[in-house]
Fold these 2 entries.
Entry 1:
Amino acid sequence: MRTVVWFRVGDLRISDHAPLRSALDGEEVIPLFVLEPDLFAPARARKQAHRMQFWLDSLHALEANLRQRGSRLVVAKGRTREVIPRTVRQWKADRVVAHRLVAPTEAEHERQLSAALGERLELFEGQTLHPPGALRTGGGKPYSVFTRFARAFDRYASIDPPLASVRSLPRLARAVTTNAEALPTCKALGITRNPAVLEGGERAARKRLREFLRKRAATYAADRDRMDLEGTSRLSADLVAGTISVRQVWTEAEGALGDTDATFAFLNELVWREFTHSTLQDRPEVLSRPFRPQFLGFPWRTDEVAWQAWARGQTGYPVVDASARQLLGEGFVHNRARMVSASFLTKHLLIDYRRGEAHYLEHLTDGDPAQNNAGWQWSAGSGCDAQPHFRIFNPVLQGQKFDPEGNYVRRWVPELARLPARYIHHPWDAPEVVLRDAGVRLGKDYPRPIVEHGYARSRFLARASQHLETRRKRD
DNA sequence: TGAAATGTTGGGGCG
DNA sequence: ACGCCCCAACATTTC
């Protein structure tokens, strides 16, 4: 038996990898990665440079891990639906195994491949803890409320421990050429490496998990919301690329932390991840339109000036600007800052959440359609179990609560670094002398707010309730 | 996984 | 002693 193991962005690892494990039951294993032009063409790759850097590092790490265990990674360029059947013919493989992924583009690849290969393609679950779609309400429908979903999740089934790690792999048949040199580098794709982007690969992922569990997990419940602290796991990009499996994270966290508040808070985030993936599988159309139909035709504004101010971090609201600059600077944004930022774009500036969603997807190292869409629709109020539309973050209060000393702002908005904590989240209220001592000339070194909070708040409330009211009457 | 407005309660100052 | 006002602290409602 000769088996092709189709590695994908989503399972770039060899540990806890069910398809690989299954392939080892046969004699020969051909690890394969496909360089889809839709993803790895230079122009496309550059549009998501942070993520691409992380993925390429992870791919090279995967190749090194395979090699270390006696195998190699075969790299093929072209469209999945053509390349894989060709590979199967060329190397006379008996079957192809892979993880099933929920993103619509990935699901489409699977459909096309299944049409070409029929029974010879075998897909395994593993992107999530329980297969998306497995949890249903009594009426057989997908859950639309997270707390209900989470309760069903707890009762559904126990979570299996990860598969034992693979010590050695069968040597690649001599006839098979690896073409490993085709694995691109950042340089080859014209991407300038950003040293602030996390290190990819399985080893780095495991190290991150261990360090989190050892140093920060105990205080996770309280610290996770603090934008100025490193209180979170930073595993988001790993979970997207699959350099660690969610099952490994779950099992290790449970083992290390026991039955504590921190465990619950952390694992609950993983359940949110389950929820977003399930939602995307059941309703892939959320990627193009609001989950809640009342939000169809919402009167968003087109305001290029406001958009640019938001995207570049020049709105005059320090926390909002810090988060915009953190995104561009390191391809990551603290979750709390994401929420504040998304709330500001959609509610204060009345700009379509889809524009923010696309911007995040472009720059985030952990950009993932399911998670990113769910986050943005949650903030806009249009999503599945979203916050109510009238919940509007006050960026000043959020800053004071979750960046009490202002150090998050100081890090990303250096022109305000010398302002005392008292004024750092609302520099426009600072006395002239305080501003002067801090070297801040409002309107020159740092902008005045592009919109006044109270005004923006009531503007959104009025516009939203008017739209939703009309909508409700019509439907 | 809000914020702001509004309502309630209770202590203290004061006439 | 009592009512009245103020206001902080907290609770509830509304957006």
Entry 2:
Amino acid sequence: MENQRSIESDLGYLLTRAGMLVVRATNEALAPLELRTRSYTALSLACDRPDGVPQRQVAADMGLDPSQLVAIIDELEQRKLVARTPDPNDRRNKLIVATAAGRDLCAVAARRSAEVTERYFGSVDPAALDQMREMLGQAVFPDTDRILR
Amino acid sequence: MENQRSIESDLGYLLTRAGMLVVRATNEALAPLELRTRSYTALSLACDRPDGVPQRQVAADMGLDPSQLVAIIDELEQRKLVARTPDPNDRRNKLIVATAAGRDLCAVAARRSAEVTERYFGSVDPAALDQMREMLGQAVFPDTDRILR
DNA sequence: ATAAATGATTGAAAAACTCGATGATTGAGA
DNA sequence: TCTCAATCATCGAGTTTTTCAATCATTTAT
């Protein structure tokens, strides 16, 4: 006898739906900053690494085709939130490095983003939430010892 | 001092990335059945309710614009996996009801889908997984006492 | 009976995705 | 040193997805 469960308990379904909801709410929350979830994520990845992050790696971290990042970075660069600097060690690479203005905006955006998360997950036990982060991190970054903080 | 965390511990980011990964892997797993994650989800929602589910509710449950469902249901209907039956109580509604063939295919697809989930989350404690389902369910179906099974 | 609301459908425009091609650069090996 | 294959960012074309307004049929409220 099969343990038949409804689609509404399917992890893929739940993940996708929850992701959609959070992304949409985040897009609204970031609209006043003229950021979308996408551009905020890219900016944030740049802010995480003061020395800059290869554009290609931003694409990989976002699960996007590298060609999709061109427009996103173009816009951030035009707004002077990031700069494309040639990697001195490998001039094929463009290192995306956040400007001071970029870091400032990112901090504001991070607060708004956190408010959205709070709205959806504020009522659950923080330890359980950390555990969920842990599980998702394992799924998203397999074979990695990276500690999320 | 702010508790500054990297984007990689942001729940929205993790949810989105994990969802993408699972959806893509599920699409591949379902390709031999000529189903995509989208059509499988719609079919599954129909299978969950023997008396049929209003097309509009399928759209709502999937977070899609109703117009996007037309093509999805069209295809399932052409393949005789579901039928659009007029709701006797409100003839504006189309009730999507799964056929026997639809239920059979859905069962096969569910197994393949579960294998994908197993691949990404098989190594984590089942209780923690249930807890994650619970948390995501709360976020996706707020103000609902629905018990996921 | 009329008017407002709701559901499915269509079509058009915008956004996102995919993929192959290109030029610049690097690294390996003859 | 001189190819040659590989890698990176970018571009462009073609496809798919999303968004949204309009339409028709039906229902509900007035």
